[in-house]
Specification:
Order of helices and strands: EEEHEHHEEEEEEEEHEHHEHHH
Distance between the termini: 45 Å
Shape: globular
Radius of gyration: 18 Å
CATH class of one domain: Alpha Beta
Bound molecules: zinc ion, fe (iii) ion
Structural class: alpha/beta
CATH architecture of one domain: 4-Layer Sandwich
Largest sheet: 6 strands, mixed
Strand order of the largest sheet: 1-2-3-4-5-6
CATH superfamily of one domain: Ribonuclease Z/Hydroxyacylglutathione hydrolase-like
Helix content: 25-40%
Number of helices: 9
Number of strands: 14
């Protein structure tokens, strides 16, 4: 059995995702960034929404929950730690939880950092994952609530997934991230190539998402604090990975 994934841009720079299982007639939306756009796609496809999988509580991720729930009666799944601020939450999940979407498992991992209750969803059979605002192509989420230590631990969990894992993140930030990444890791040829590709895709109005974990491990400075080139650049040869990560995050915040 395969699932169909529809990716669509919405709001200013968000990506929304609808996942459909035709055998079981299930449809989930990952987050609820723009309920009007989501409703329109559901209508065009003739699908009815059965679930919302929330990654975190920010308005551009959970702001459409109640409207979609009142229209469809869908079940809302979100982080137990954020239950108090995920509108309409029905099922609370946390680290290591697993539930079924049709006949395939979905794995939940907690990735605090961007927010304290941030979670990510992975479909290991299809090798796809929905990472919200934790990992972006060539970037990572801003630390609105968590510490660098928490975010670094969260990213390390993601780094353990197979390299082929498709990473569906929640924003098209890649081109902006690429400009920063080049200042941190200018000699990285994989990064240079990816930046060219990103410029080309964006000039054609095309998405740079999904990316793969393997590509991010080679190009995303936030996954590469061990890189000697980056350490030399930052004059942090003897620092820990976590310290280098924290410094890259600080530099990006002021970029
Ligand atoms: Zn967010
Ligand atoms: Fe967001």
């Amino acid at each position: 059995m395969t699932i169909e994934i529809i990716q669509f841009p919405c709001l200013e720079d968000n990506y929304g995702y609808l996942i459909h299982d035709s055998e079981e007639n299930l449809t989930v939306t990952v987050d609820s960034p723009d309920p009007v756009v989501i409703q329109q796609i559901l209508q065009d496809k003739g699908w009815s929404l059965t679930h919302i999988l929330n990654t975190h509580h920010h308005w551009d991720h959970a702001g459409g929950n109640l409207e979609l729930k009142s229209l469809s009666g869908c079940t809302i799944i979100g982080s137990a730690k954020d239950a108090h601020r995920i509108p309409g939450i029905d099922i609370q999940v946390g680290e290591g939880d697993q539930f079924m979407f049709g006949n395939q498992p979905v794995l939940v991992q907690e990735t605090p950092g961007h927010t304290l209750g941030h979670i990510v969803y992975r479909f290991p059979v299809e090798n796809v994952s929905f990472v919200g605002d934790t990992l972006f192509s060539l970037g990572c989420g801003r630390l609105f609530e968590g510490t660098p230590n928490q975010m670094w631990n969260s990213l390390q969990k993601i780094k353990h997934w197979p390299d082929e894992t498709l990473i569906y993140c929640a924003h098209e930030y890649t081109q902006e991230n690429a400009r920063f990444a080049l200042t941190i890791d200018p000699e990285n040829q994989d990064l240079q190539l990816r930046c060219k590709e990103v410029d080309q895709l964006r000039s054609q109005g095309r998405a740079t998402v999904p990316t793969t974990l393997g590509l991010e491990k080679k190009t995303n400075p936030f996954l590469r604090p061990h890189s000697l080139a980056i350490r030399k650049m930052l004059d942090m040869m003897d620092a820990s990975d976590e310290e280098v990560f924290a410094q890259i995050r600080r530099l990006k915040d002021n970029f």
